[in-house]
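Example record for the data management plan.
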Amino acid sequence: MFVRSIDDIIGTDLDVQWGAGQSRRLIVRSDGMGFAVAETQVLPGAAVFLEYKNHLEACYCIAGTGEIIDSTGKVYPIFPRVIYALDQHDKHHLRALTEMRLLSIFCPPIHGHERHDLDPGQTSSY
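Corresponding structural encoding:
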């Protein structure tokens, strides 16, 4: 068993500027759990095009508002107590209308140091 807090992560190599905010990786591959958990901050006004080719991801919104736009153009509002799951390695746009905090779960787990290379028009993946 282990116990870890966000305060334990701040300022370490698990406190990562991911491209449109901060990601604090609470559980990573080396923890041996079979999944990863991160608290993800998305800065207000951020608009990113993402696709996780190597991981499935689910995000539970803790705070803030935004939207996910799928590959068909359908817009899904995201606000506290909403979860979205990218169960098909889905390409998606994420827009933060206000600062958002998401609890992100990855399977298989991320290593913890990954960062996005955000390039308009192309998906960023890790």
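Summary line stored alongside the record: The radius of gyration is 14 Å.
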